[in-house]
Amino acid sequence: MKTKNEYIDSLAAELKEWSAKIDALALKADRAAEHVKQQYAEEIAELRSKR
Asked: Which residues in the chain land under pLDDT 50?
């Protein structure tokens, strides 16, 4: 069983990974065509709400 600090560290690492994925998706959205940007914006908003 993990200690409290190990659990917190694993959650922090997971959040950091999610943030990196969100940033990559945001960059991809900035480079996308206008009609695709809305789809990415919705995905980013959903992911950020889960963060």
From this structure: none
